Amino acid sequence: MEFLLAVLLVFMLVGALIAIETRDLLSSVICTGAVGYLASVAFLFLGAPDIAITQVVVEILVLILLIRATISRDVTAPAGDREFFGLVVSLAFMLVTGVAGMRILGDAFPKFGTGIFAVSPLAPASTYLARGWQLTGATNIVAAVTHDFRGLDTLFEATILFATVLGALTVLRARGHRERAEEAADDEPLHEGPEFRTASRGMTMLVQRVARGMAGFIFLYGVYIVLYGHLRPGGGFAGGIMIACTFILLLLALGKDGVDRYLTRRFVGCFSSIGAVMLLLLGWLGFARGGWFLGNFLHHAGGLPAEGLLAAGTMPLANLAIALNVVVSLVLLFASLAVLRVVVRQNRRRMVKRG
Amino acid sequence: MLYLLCFALFLVGLFGVLAKKNLVKIIIGFAIMEYAIHLLIVMLGYRDGGRAAVLVPGATTEQLAASGVDPLAQAMVLISIVIGLSILVMLVALCIRLYERHGTFDLNELRNLKG
User: Fold this and answer.
1) Is A134 an interface residue toward B (CB < 8 Å)?
2) Do A48 and B100 lie within an 8 Å CB cutoff?
């Protein structure tokens, strides 16, 4: 086991080094993806299937985002003269961090394979394991921790995701005063790069057919992962990202025109905040009915079946809310990254490069 | 040994953030540091012969309590992964914005454009 993990980690290290050192940005991004997938395999061996699933889907999204950010832009890394002083400072910083880390990792942490239980038997983790099912009705104890024992964490996590996506949208869509003035100044028509044409018309017929065929299955699997999040590994985030991936796949394959049919602006507008509102509503209902914020009032009330979809009270509902939040945030963000702002003004770019 | 390998991965990411001049490389460095930290936390929660913290049909809670891995560490990492994704999204958005404005990912060039 330890040997296996060590091999995986060595591969990850190699991938990371290539990602950092290679000159080609696209291969660097793909190497990062390899590191992420290896991490997901390592999670699987470490008994963390929830994290493995989430890591895989997050990795897919990161790859799409980074490739979208780098491809058809400056693909070659700039040569640039290295600053000697900067390199020395960063190496010194790394040395200090390295020495400190060695000391901490050498003796402060328990040996690999002992866990927290050996150090302190009264750790909350042992209570969660022993009584999690009894207290929440969820067979997936990790979901029980994220959605019930530590529901606030999840609420704030959803808030952070929502806020970041709003921030990113603002950054991507806002145009500065100077830009507006420049646009008013020159009457030259905007250049439309090849990216714009791809974005609006989509890819070839073959890709479109396959994407349409696949989308339904991916969507269904995402829904399964969301709905069974409290019973099996999975949950709102992993499933939500999968469902978002369905729309992103369609967006990439069919282009803007095709997606407008599936995902109208009105639909997105209606759903943009429904997930977050639903989660907050669940929290306040818990306050009203069960006595504390985000309390699992349905489970405490009793009368639910011990097994199956309805077992864990509010947890499937919370999963659904989180999934909605994730889907809408990510699809909005991706639509704005890929479709809305692709008209790059090439004349200005050239001007900047020359200067 | 495993912890130290994880830490080496973290240092590789740190090197990317500190020494690289390309914005995309810096983002990649952040992502690698994140993987290393997540892996380290999940490793801390592992116990020998541990099984996933899921109550499978046929198993009792006593068995799970005796052999399950730490669900708290996993919950923490689960939340951290999503926050990491948010940070990455934000960074990519800023990066694209900078590129649109100045036409480069290179920090040196961006610095020269100041003013």
Assistant:
1) yes
2) no
pTM: 0.84
In sequence order, which residues have a C-beta less than 8 Å from that of residue A128 and are 6 or more positions away? A141, A144, A145, A149, B53, B71, B72
**Assigned token pair, A274:** 């429904």
Cβ proximity of A314 and A298 under 8 Å: yes
CA distance A66 to chain B (A): 7
Q: Which of B7, B37, B38, B39 to mutate to test the interface with A (most CBs of A within 10 A)?
A: B39
Q: Which helix (H) or strand (E) holds A136?
A: helix A124-136
pLDDT in tens, A170-198: 787 655 555 555 555 544 444 444 444 44
Residue A93 touches partner B, C-beta closer than 8 Å: yes
DSSP one-letter string for A177-196: HHHHHHHHH--PPPP--HHH
**HSE-CB for A243 with a 13 A CA cutoff:** 25
Model confidence pLDDT, tens digit, residues A271-306: 767 887 888 888 888 888 777 777 777 777 776 776
With an 8 Å Cβ cutoff, are B2 and A112 in contact? yes
Give CA angle at A334 (A180, B16), nearest 5°.
90
pLDDT in tens, A20-34: 988 888 889 999 999
- A250 within 8 A of A215, measured Cβ to Cβ: yes
Q: Does A131 touch chain B (CB under 8 A)?
A: yes
- Tell me the two tokens of residue A299: 């489970």
What tokens were used for B79?
């939340």
Distance CA A255, CA A248 (A): 10
CA angle A65, A71, A76 (to 5 degrees): 125
The greatest distance separating any two alpha carbons of chain A, rounded to the nearest whole angstrom, comes to: 73
Do A6 and B5 make contact, defined as CB atoms within 8 angstroms?
Answer: yes
The beta-carbon neighbor of B70 closest among A86, A115, A171 is: A115
